Amino acid sequence: MSKSRLIKLRKELERHGHLYYVLDQPEISDFEYDKLLQELIDLEDKFPDMADPNSPTQKVGGIVLDEFKRVKHESEMYSLNNAFSFEDLKAFDQRIKRSLTNYQYEVEYKIDGLAMSLLYEDGQFVQAVTRGDGVFGEDVSNNIKTVKSLPLKIDYPHKLELRGEVIINKDDFEKINKLRAANEEVLFANARNAAAGSVRQLDSKIAAKRNLDGFFYTVVDPEIHGISSQQEALGFLKKLGFKVESHGKIFDDIEDVYKYIEELELKRSQLNYDIDGVVIKVNDLAAQNILGFTSKFPRWAIAYKFAAQEVTSVIEDIFITVGRTGKITPNAKLTPVLIDGSTVSFAQLHNEDMIKEKDIRINDHVIVRKAGDIIPEVVKVLFDKRDGSQKSYVFPNNCPVCDQEIVRLENEAHHFCINVDCPARLIETMAHFASRDAMDIKGLGEQTIKTLYNENILSSLEDIYRLKTKEAQVLSLQGFKEKSFSNLIMAIEASKDNDLSKFINGLGIRLVGSRASQILSEHYDNIDALSFAKVEELQLISDIGSITAQSIVDFFKNPKNIEMINNLKDLGVNPQAVKTEVLEEGYFANKTVVVTGSFENYDRKALTSKLETFGAKVTGSVSGKTDIVVYGENAGSKYTKAIKLNVEVMNEEEFIKEVENYEKNN
Ligand code: AMP
Ligand code: ZN
Fold this sequence. Notes:
By secondary structure, the protein is an alpha+beta fold. The protein has 6 domains: about 1-50, Helix hairpin bin (Helix Hairpins, Orthogonal Bundle); about 80-305, D-amino Acid Aminotransferase, Chain A, domain 1 (2-Layer Sandwich); about 310-410, CATH 2.40.50.140; about 425-495, DNA polymerase, domain 1, CATH 1.10.150; about 500-570, 5' to 3' exonuclease, C-terminal subdomain (DNA polymerase, domain 1, Orthogonal Bundle), CATH 1.10.150.20; about 590-665, BRCT domain (Rossmann fold), CATH 3.40.50. It is built from 25 helices and 24 strands. The strands form 6 sheets. Strands 12, 13, 14, 16, 17, 19 and 20 form a 7-stranded antiparallel sheet that branches. α1 runs antiparallel to α2, α12 (about 425-435) crosses α13 and α17 crosses α18 (about 515-525). The relative contact order is 0.07. Bound molecules: adenosine monophosphate and zinc ion (ZN). Zinc ion (ZN) binds near residues 322 and 401.
């Protein structure tokens, strides 16, 4: 009976979701999970009477609001008093000693996210409200429901209110910003801002794509639930399936608390999420109740804030880079310094106004910050360190690359080189075209392109496909060997049959990055079809906004671009939206496979697509979810990891045997 299958699937998916997103111990591959999810989606379509607002299918979002509802918190969401030194902590401890004789501290990381209060009734998720001003918050339930690690159903049939932080993990944050950079959108300054922006999305589908996550640490009215300490509250939440940060620990005295804080500060850079300090709480709830609250804070807790990760360095030079669209960015070359475990040698100076506002000069001592941000920035100049050797930076009037005058349009913070033939722009355009997410031409990186550009061998995208006729010229250059040249030509030739999405991405249409390209290639079979698309039609595609739609149309309105595309087609570039038929049975079907090392009979890409047509999902890194690692010569850490995790490994010879098996049977 399909309805019972539907119910069973929901339970299964909830369990696997918890295993994957909370415990990080998946039992099935992403592929299998997606398959189960698809089955559930189909069943829910078939039986609308079985709809459930807390079904795992709801994690992808879908509801679009006009505004958020204002909600009053049943009990106020307090802020925390701050401590910045051990002295402050000792003073806090002294205050507590006045009211209590016997007590313990519970110490946990202070998560740098967005505070949130969640309500469950009868084991069902009901509502999520932001902290707001502590008394009133906003109902962001639709967005919080997309938090993959959050259980929407719990095995606890009572009313339960809990609190925690919603975050975006560091690695996801980097991905989001990379995507935004590719689309020339404004970057989020840090993961917290990204999380805040995502939680306050009116379109929950967008929120769902941001991969929100969260940690929970407070049970409201804990006594009702038979909880008698903060430590128990954390255990209670964890047992119900909520994600609880794992560093919580109990101490008897403040000296030990401080030692642990120092330990936690050192561990900070190893975490995949941002924290901005540590919270110290009196563990026992009865003791907490004796201490009570001031008008703003609980008296029984304090936040120890870590110092922002700022260091001083010297601006050795200021230089300008020109992007693919001609955007001019000033950068600072710094004396290398260590911040949060990584060496920083450059900082972004954003634009001319910022240099002027902060009065940044060459040879200045400056404070550099990297607080969760990926690109370090200059916080301020240490003016008292000026010794007369500082030189003001004169913002150039001309492009440092093509020497044409640069312009700054009204209301624009940036200067642009508007010379379409600017070598910097051409080189960046070619480098983007050849890059991995675009045409993926191995061996054609930015340095190679620069060299070939300077030798007049490459000066347009078309020239890439004419490169094979210039063998003698290329081989006469230093650093080019016959073997590397023939590999390069092979990669260029192979790119002609790339998937349409890679080609669209490669064109570098403003606001169209790899994701938008993917979406477009699902709607258009080839580049001509896309080039005829109208704004109104493009806008109808979900995730393509009006500005992006206009940008696409503008791109194809430009006769130069059409000519370039036609030339590429004449040269044999023929990208199609390929919808490959994938085998459902056989050794590799539905397996998650990682390919590593180099192969005698295949190039890596060919091997990957072969695996894909056999129904395998090929991923980049080895984890517990990997089924098989196919390894070649010089396989490194991925191979070792596979052995460690007991993942099946297969060498080239064994792989070829499997391929032959297939070809015999199919
Ligand atoms: P602040 O916003 O700087 O006043 O810090 C207080 C806020 O820190 C609280 O309202 C919580 O939202 C947040 N916070 C983060 N992690 C924790 C934690 N482990 N325990 C309590 N509060 C936390
Ligand atoms: Zn220029």
